[in-house]
Design a protein that fits this description.
- The protein is mainly alpha-helical and 117 residues long.
- It has a two-stranded antiparallel ribbon with strand order 1-2.
- Strand 1 and strand 2 form a beta hairpin.
- The radius of gyration is 47 Å and the shape is rod-shaped.
- The termini are far apart.
Length: 117
């Protein structure tokens, strides 16, 4: 019986010792590569993903700003087109007024020439 108790104590001690050794190891190997290496790679991937998210959000903000600038540009083009049409109408009216004035001057000259004769 004594041998049985000693054997049970030795087996339990071995199991506890193995558990302590496994729990206290900081770098458990896996096919020659430690867990710390995987942890570093995962941390790097997380940092890269967070940076990618920030970059995408920044690109979305930039796209929204560009969209606003495009809308402002379109409004400017509409105003320029409207002004251009107003200038064309004013130019056409000025042409009509010039022709009317030339006609009046021609009539005045003809009357003045006929009176001097």
């Amino acid at each position: 019986m004594n041998v049985k108790k000693i054997l049970v104590v030795v087996v339990i001690g071995f199991i506890i010792g193995a558990a302590v050794v496994l729990c206290l190891r900081s770098n458990v190997p896996d096919n020659g590569v430690g867990v710390d290496t995987f942890r570093e790679q995962l941390d790097g991937a997380i940092r890269l993903e967070r940076q990618t998210i920030r970059d995408v959000e920044s690109a979305a903000d930039t796209a929204a700003g560009v969209r606003g600038e495009i809308e402002s540009g379109r409004a400017g083009v509409r105003e320029a087109t409207k002004s251009n049409l107003q200038l064309k109408e004013g130019n056409d009216r000025a042409g009509e007024l010039i022709r009317d004035c030339q006609s009046i001057l021609k009539t005045v000259r003809e009357r003045g020439a006929s009176k001097t004769e």
